[in-house]
């Protein structure tokens, strides 16, 4: 509980605050009434007009001070539990006095444009006077929107900001720059953070923002995508139909406001381009110079691409056949009639873009068709395949050779490896290049690549804890199934049989018997 003395002291403090606020508020009201009385005498006494004009120069400041003190009085009365003492009519009376003063001021100042407004924001009323050619006052209390970098919001923000700022000639470019930076956040603020704040850089900042975020093409494409992806209405209802019409109406209105030269043709272009690979779209954007491409221009580009593809060889399906020396790759083409054609493109999905070539980063051909890769020495090609962890059958980086579905073999030695990875040294030792892919694999995994001549293999094991008959945890070594078809277990003896005479309470348990595994190499 709060002590009684503290309550008394707090009440006394609030009483003093109320007294001070009342005195200041009454003083401001008296000044406003004095100016109002002076305005009533202007018509009968024209000589006092200069005094009246000077007294109205700080009318906005008087009104702001009055509102602040009136709020202080109300807070004190609430703290003292005496809200009934608050005069609810005083603020409206003072507002009427200021309105009368403005009428007289406009009447007796025909050469000056006097504008003013009284607005309420969050319970606090504010008066703003703007006198062109007279006394300079602050920016009108019109809310300025915030821009975070959304392309859709830029046109509205730009038009609104320019309309509010540029029409006030009394504001310098430096002031406008401060107001502009105060309205920016996120990506928009990042775009102009390097521009110094000065009157000379205001127009530069607006230009930078306009170049960065004025993207009508992006807005139009997003609106079309929004219409195409709209959720279908499952059941007829008032709310769903209303939302449907509102969404379409808003999007169509925005598309119309963008002034697209041929809206129908642009929509057809958007529908066609979204169905093509991203690589084709990039090539079109490189050649395109129109803000809103038409469907006719897009089809002409596609026809030119078709002509290009017809005039060049299909590098995605290289064929090599016949017994040749890999170092002399040019002889592959001359001796291709000695054997059947072999395709090295495995499991390519129709319509999917090709992966980039690992050797030259070119997306237009695969590694097996790369001229740079074919021109290297055989040792370098094999080393490149090992370093990049490529499949030795199809040169893919998506899987190992033991997971490859390709049935192709080397056309030189008929072994299971790609013809570009053929090595004479391996051929002489009757080995396979695939067997050279010995990599370090963590415990529990086994690399089973290619063929093995050894009648036995090494299987992975792991230590696990299991409970015996008495409930005691025992550490045993178990076999890890690697899901391989290279070996099969024909005889298996458990690591140990739980001894019924094992007594964990006495700390006695017979020793464990080791694993006994008989494995047969599966050559099938």
Topology record:
Layout: H1 4-41, H2 49-55, H3 59-79, H4 90-107, E1 113-121, E2 124-132, H5 154-165, H6 173-183, H7 187-192, H8 202-213, H9 216-228, H10 238-257, H11 263-273, H12 278-287, H13 295-311, H14 330-334, H15 371-374, H16 378-387, H17 424-428, E3 461-467, E4 473-479, E5 487-493, E6 516-521
Antiparallel strand pairs: 1-2, 3-4, 5-6
Helix pairs in contact: 1-3, 1-4, 3-4, 9-10
What would your notes on this structure say?
It is a single chain. By secondary structure, the chain is mainly alpha-helical. Among the domains are: 127 residues, no CATH class; 61 residues; 107 residues, no CATH class; 61 residues, no CATH class. It has 17 helices and six strands. A hairpin with a 2-residue loop joins strand 1 and strand 2. Helix 1 runs parallel beside helix 4, helix 3 packs antiparallel against helix 4 and helix 9 runs antiparallel to helix 10. The longest helix has 38 residues. The C terminus is likely disordered.
Query: How many whole angstroms does the radius of gyration measure?
Result: 43 Å
Poorly predicted regions are 110-137, 318-352, 428-452, 491-502, 504-508, 512-524
Number of continuous helical runs: 17
Average the pLDDT over all residues and give the rounded result: 71
Task: Write a compact overview of the structure shown.
With 524 residues, the protein is mostly helical. Among the domains are: 4-130, no CATH class; 154-214; 330-436, no CATH class; 461-521, no CATH class. The chain has helices spanning 4-41, 49-55, 59-79, 90-107, 154-165, 173-183, 187-192, 202-213, 216-228, 238-257, 263-273, 278-287, 295-311, 330-334, 371-374, 378-387, 424-428, and strands at residues 113-121, 124-132, 461-467, 473-479, 487-493, 516-521.
């Amino acid at each position: 509980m709060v002590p009684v003395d503290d309550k008394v002291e707090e009440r006394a403090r609030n009483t003093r605050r109320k007294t001070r606020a009342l005195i200041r508020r009454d003083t401001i009201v008296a000044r406003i009434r004095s100016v109002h009385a002076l305005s009533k005498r202007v018509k009968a006494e024209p000589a006092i007009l200069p005094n009246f004009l000077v007294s109205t120069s700080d009318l906005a400041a008087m009104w702001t001070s009055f509102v602040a003190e009136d709020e202080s009085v109300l807070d004190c009365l609430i703290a003292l539990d005496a809200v009934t003492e608050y005069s609810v009519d005083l603020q409206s009376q003072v507002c009427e006095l200021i309105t009368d003063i403005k009428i007289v001021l406009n009447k007796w100042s025909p050469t000056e444009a006097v504008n003013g407004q009284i607005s309420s924001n969050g319970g606090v009323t504010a008066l703003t006077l703007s006198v062109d050619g007279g006394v300079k006052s602050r920016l009108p209390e019109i809310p300025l929107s915030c821009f975070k970098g959304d392309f859709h919001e830029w046109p509205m923000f730009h038009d609104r900001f320019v309309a509010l700022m540029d029409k006030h000639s009394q504001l310098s470019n430096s002031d406008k720059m401060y107001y502009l930076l105060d309205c920016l956040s996120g990506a928009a603020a990042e775009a102009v953070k390097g521009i110094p704040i000065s009157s000379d850089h205001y127009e530069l900042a607006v230009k930078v923002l306009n170049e960065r975020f004025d993207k009508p093409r992006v807005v139009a494409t997003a609106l079309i995508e929004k219409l195409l992806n709209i959720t279908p209405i499952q059941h007829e209802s008032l709310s769903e139909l209303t939302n449907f019409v509102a969404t379409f109406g808003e999007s169509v209105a925005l598309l119309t406001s963008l002034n697209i030269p041929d809206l129908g043709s642009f929509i057809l272009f958007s529908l066609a381009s979204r169905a093509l690979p991203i690589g084709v779209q990039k090539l079109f954007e490189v050649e395109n110079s129109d803000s809103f491409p038409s469907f006719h221009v897009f089809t002409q580009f596609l026809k030119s691409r078709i002509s290009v593809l017809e005039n060049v060889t299909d590098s995605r399906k290289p064929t090599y056949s016949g017994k040749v020396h890999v170092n002399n790759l040019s002889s592959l083409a001359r001796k291709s009639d000695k054997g059947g054609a072999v395709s090295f493109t495995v499991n390519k999905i129709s319509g999917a873009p090709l992966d980039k070539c690992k050797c030259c980063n070119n997306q237009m051909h695969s590694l097996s068709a790369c001229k740079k890769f074919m021109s290297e020495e055989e040792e370098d090609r094999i080393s490149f395949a090992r370093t990049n962890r490529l499949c030795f059958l199809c040169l893919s980086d998506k899987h190992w050779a033991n997971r490859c579905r390709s049935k192709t073999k080397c056309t030189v030695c008929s072994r299971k490896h790609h013809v570009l990875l053929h090595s004479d040294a391996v051929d002489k030792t009757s080995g396979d290049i695939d067997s050279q892919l010995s990599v370090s694999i963590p415990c529990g995994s086994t690399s089973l690549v290619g063929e093995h001549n050894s009648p036995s293999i090494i299987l992975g094991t792991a230590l696990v804890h299991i409970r015996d008959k008495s409930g005691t945890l025992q550490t045993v070594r178990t076999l890890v199934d690697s899901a391989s078809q290279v070996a099969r277990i024909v005889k298996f003896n458990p690591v140990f049989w739980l001894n019924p005479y094992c007594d964990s309470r006495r700390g006695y348990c017979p020793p464990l018997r080791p694993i006994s595994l008989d494995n047969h190499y599966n050559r099938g």
